[in-house]
Amino acid sequence: xxxxxxxxxxxxxxxxxxxxxxxxxxxxxxxxxxxxxxxxxxxxxxxxxxxxxxxxxxxxxxxxxxxxxxxxxxxxxxxxxxxxxxxxxxxxxxxxxxxxxxxxxxxxxxxxxxxxxxxxxxxxxxxxxxxxxxxxxxxxxxxxxxxxxxxxxxxxxxxxxxxxxxxxxxxxxxxxxxxxxxxxxxxxxxxxxxxxxxxxxxxxxxxxxxxxxxxxxxxxxxxxxxxxxxxxxxxxxxxxxxxxxxxxxxxxxxxxxxxxxxxxxxxxxxxxxxxxxxxxxxxxxxxxxxxxxxxxxxxxxxxxxxxxxxxxxxxxxxxxxxxxxxxxxxxxxxxxxxxxxxxxxxxxxxxxxxxxxxxxxxxxxxxxxxxxxxxxxxxxxxxxxxxxxxxxxxxxxxxxxxxxxxxxxxxxxxxxxxxxxxxxxxxxxxxxxxxxxxxxxxxxxxxxxxxxxxxxxxxxxxxxxxxxxxxxxxxxx
Length: 477
What we know:
- The structure is a single chain.
- The chain has 477 residues and is of the alpha+beta class.
- It folds into three domains: 112 residues, Nucleotidyltransferase, domain 5 (2-Layer Sandwich), CATH 3.30.420; 165 residues, no CATH class; 148 residues, no CATH class.
- 37% of the residues lie in helices and 16% in strands.
- It contains 18 helices and 15 strands.
- The strands form four sheets. It has a six-stranded mixed beta sheet with strand order 3-2-1-4-5-6, sandwiched between helices. A four-stranded antiparallel beta sheet has the order 11-14-7-15, with helices on one face.
């Protein structure tokens, strides 16, 4: 159902941090209080639908709105759109003009138009807001990065550097913001935004990154280029395909430019593919053969859970566990799709490799509640790193909507779901902080099963648990 303009509260931050807003079709006005006071005051406001431009400067505002009013189980609706609805930077920094421009944005979501802010958007803005708050990379930002849709594909690159990736994510926020209206398949806009031109790259290679575009260019370069060139043997590894591009271009500034352009193409295309896949749209945004060759394609398509966990345990202070969950009742998919015979089926979320996923955010919210119930581990559950990939086999399940005896035609009505059936076993990988024991973790899992209710759209395993890790196990909790 289309939202009417007079039902929407549009919000914008002035360069000094002053909050401006336009209520429905009213003229823009400045708020009398600061950001926190303004957001708190919305509790008594009549509207529960908010729109904000997706800019790095707005990340703290978006986080406040989402966490207070628009997160899961809350009634509010937050929508974001590309800041490029404003024609130039001057308009984006003028709140009155920006608020009027927001009314003129009629583009579809795939081209940077308004779309609902969800858990797929959350990591980008959370990283941006946290970087602004902490002024640097830390363990909390690392954990946010591990939940980002783009991160898994980036782990294919052997020399990827998370401390620079988070800054690049905070600059871009959403790849849809830079889609060309006339040529949607091109990513020229984002390469221009990042300063990937010969002139800027020459300055960056000389260590002369002075303006903002040069800083963005340097960040994109350092995301993949480490301090040292790989050895001749390591250079041939599939994950060093960018270094081979650099070598083929002759090294130097030219090599930096060609390899960084390839990196950005890979980064944006795989990110777009993850967004499409997680929203269960049947589109090919990234074709591995378009950027990779021969054995590189095969290596990319191979599972990389181990390399993901290596990144998680790099500092050596966490323990890895493999959790086996047995379902005591059906666990149903919720994303509407179609079968080959064009029948409606509700599917499980999947990544770009078509592997079933349980998003880490689902586990975190349940474990935070479980920690409150048992009265401990409140800080530790935030440090659990969850691998989203599920190891298990799906079946089809018919969920009865209307029994035959209640139907006028005496026909049972049902919905078709992808499901894990009662008795099915799945595997989930997680990395626990060193201070959390397996006994504590098992107790939290039990509380999650016994006490935490599940929203309708999230698959909930009613579980029995075993933990074959660190030579310990807990049977059938």
